[in-house]
Amino acid sequence: MKKEQRLKNIISILKSHPSIHIKTLQDETGYSVSTLRRDLVDLENKGLIQRSFGAIRLLNQENLEYTWQYRNENNQNAKEKICKIAAHFVEDNDAIFIDSSTTSIRVLDYLDTLNGLKILTNNLKVAEKAQGLPNISAFIGGG
Length: 143
Prior knowledge:
The protein is of the alpha/beta class. It has helices at residues 3-16, 22-29, 33-45, 68-73, 76-87, 124-131, and strands at residues 19-21, 49-52, 55-58, 95-98, 117-121, 136-140.
């Protein structure tokens, strides 16, 4: 079973048991202790769970802001489709703003053939990626 599927399975179990002991989770999933511990460390680093003394607790999802890395890894196909469609609205010599979302940075992959494009952004990753594209000027705003 792939890691992503295991993580989703763990989260699903935690949704029905917001607090569970690691031994109970192991019994329900059938994962080895070492695999389960690695997956739980990953989920904890992503801010989805909290571990303490063998217990795992699902954190409140309503007030939770996921890390940029976690958001970037999810829904990749949908993000690619959105950016491909959005790129059709951009023409030569346009000026566009690209925000700091994990979706919008991908639009740059579809704009490299345009001339005179000016990109305004508040995202260092966007500015860095745009810097390597010919015929595109990137401007980053403070704050």
